[in-house]
């Protein structure tokens, strides 16, 4: 199966983050746009291999504050959970 790639750019809000992931990785319509729902979809419903590349992550960190830290923790935990997922900050 070919690698699916999600590239995040110019993320200014948490809603925008969720919407971009949902769009690029074809999340199910019922995705709840919260951390628990994000974990459930990424850990079990998105077929691998896939990667998320977050460009402009320093600006996103400034925009999202504490939510950015929570997202980074979740995505790094997912790297440890799935051998068919990679995550890169740029």
UniProtKB/TrEMBL annotation:
Barstar (barnase inhibitor) domain ranges (all copies): 3-87
Family note: Belongs to the barstar family.
Pfam families: Barstar
Protein name: Barnase inhibitor barstar
The organism's place on the tree of life at top rank: Bacteria
């Amino acid at each position: 199966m070919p690698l699916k790639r999600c590239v995040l750019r110019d993320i200014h809000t948490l809603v925008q983050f969720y919407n971009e992931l949902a769009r690029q990785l074809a999340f199910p319509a019922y995705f709840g746009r919260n951390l628990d729902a994000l974990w459930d979809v990424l850990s079990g419903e998105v077929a691998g291999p896939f990667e998320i590349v977050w460009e402009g992550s320093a600006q996103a960190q400034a925009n999202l504050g504490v939510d950015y830290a929570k997202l980074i923790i979740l995505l790094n935990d997912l790297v440890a959970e799935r051998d068919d997922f990679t995550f890169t900050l740029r």
